[in-house]
């Protein structure tokens, strides 16, 4: 062996591999991933492969200092990348991708909150690199950190090692006993198309995921090999569609992406009308996405206007707002389209010009409503001035056009939601029936410094044991509650309150707070990775009898539910969420990484494990069916967004109609 591998060259490869594996193992431990499974074995293989690969090129450098520098730098990058991934997973709920690089800028703006959110155990990820530095800078006679040149034979043997280990590594993606039968995405699929960062990082480690992510950004691969069959028509169905033109488009379609999407949506079942169909027909509707609002707003003594709303509302006590790559913008997007936002990119910013004839704005406009949208900030974060209009909002009013004073560069001071409601309501009530979308902002982080609204109501909480950041958040939240009171008063004064439905949901929990702060003000266990995503979801009308629903739901179900309640002319096949009142409602919440929870179990996509809540259990085939359905929905949503499918389909349907009309 010495003939082909100088002693120090071989030892350097082995030692560096040990340190790289140590980083990965610590990451797995702090993230709660299994240590003794095939993923760990795969990570060991890839670590050895990467070390040999990079060592091969580093050894070409003539100077010892240069070789040592590059070796240290690469291990440093691997360490910091793993450390940052742990932080992003905790802070934003998803691991970062190059596609979500815009969120890195947002984190920089809240760097203090980001670092405060770090759990102590995350810092253990840095330990192997620190030890490696000690190792490299030991007295020269004791260290092996690239202090000798390497000849041609070791390089040839290195290439042979790469070929053998590379082939063995790829084989682990296919060997049956190395696969988890209930994994959300198969290893071969997630390796070549690593869009599910949670599964990819668990199965391949942070270092390999980072490289695969770079590859995916520049050379994207979509792996979908499915055949879809349209379900047989039920003669008892009353909601039916003439798909003649659509099928004709599909038959002539040459683009494989569009053809796959056509076949998928055509194959989906059609939810039928139910006792709630048309319940609010022809009434006005206001949808309010409330910034950073979770169940802390249920404190009636501090938030009387929200409490007043609940007295005449339907309230879903098991509503969740899973954080996506860009929690606010993406969860707003999903609320408007009932499509899953991309979990590796800021959907609203990367694809702002996409058009959706299925969107909430277009559906209500088709019914004769005026449809407008409002926000009290500018487009500093999200391109609402572009994507709201592309989605069909007749006019988007931001803080500037509403005449609201703010400084978008000052992250402590946010505009007033009270002023937003005053000025927005003066506009959308001019024409009825109206549909208005309002996105608030006052409770936005940070909460660690003095601000006008963060300090405005501090006296309300002076007798509590809450931390100062939590008090400042609750003070800001009080402004949003005031805004709800203003809205109710304005609607009442203009005589439209009785005929108006108000829908409220939170975009995400206030993740600018540490978990212990949130825990002190809510009644559920926020240490649970998923339970912390709970937010309120409310449908209000002044004349409603209050009801509490226990079904599990999210923003994905808002549009199809409203479409049914208002009896809109819509095709439920285009919505990947469900009508909450449908007899086919699955009672299942799907999280950003594909994890899910229903009344029977919780499936964790990160670790491919199932936790049951009672005696009822799913069989393996049932779990596979659920996971296949969820994965397909996410994959098809991704394809529809990245290809601007709905704009293309609308254009082709119009062309077919014109051709048919001409032929007649």
Descriptive report:
This protein has 664 residues and is α/β, with parallel strands linked by helices. The protein has 2 domains: 7-218, no CATH class; 268-586, Alkaline Phosphatase, subunit A (3-Layer(aba) Sandwich). The protein has helices at 7-31, 38-58, 64-92, 101-109, 111-116, 127-136, 152-171, 187-192, 197-218, 244-252, 256-267, 304-310, 327-337, 347-350, 360-366, 384-390, 399-402, 417-428, 452-456, 468-493, 515-519, 558-565, 620-642, 645-663, and strands spanning 284-290, 313-320, 370-375, 395-397, 434-439, 500-506, 537-540, 547-554, 589-590, 596-597, 601-604, 609-612. The strands form 2 sheets. An 8-stranded mixed β-sheet has the order 4-3-5-1-6-7-2-8, sandwiched between helices. Helix 1 packs across helix 2 (38-58), helix 1 (7-31) packs parallel to helix 3 (64-92) and helix 10 (244-252) runs antiparallel to helix 11. The radius of gyration is 27 Å and the shape is globular. The model has no long low-confidence stretch (mean pLDDT 90).
Mean pLDDT: 90
Beta-strand portion reads: 5-15%
| Helical content band | 40-55%
CATH T-level topology of the largest domain: Alkaline Phosphatase, subunit A
CATH architecture of the largest domain: 3-Layer(aba) Sandwich
Taking the sheet with the most strands, its summary is: 8 strands, mixed
Structural class: alpha/beta
Query: Measured on Cα atoms, how large is the radius of gyration?
Result: 27 Å
CATH superfamily of the largest domain: Alkaline Phosphatase, subunit A
Number of helices: 24
Lateral strand order in the biggest sheet: 4-3-5-1-6-7-2-8
Distance between the termini: 83 Å
Number of individual domains = 2
Number of strands: 12
- The first-level CATH class of the largest domain is given as Alpha Beta
Sum up the overall morphology in one term.
globular
Low-confidence stretches: none
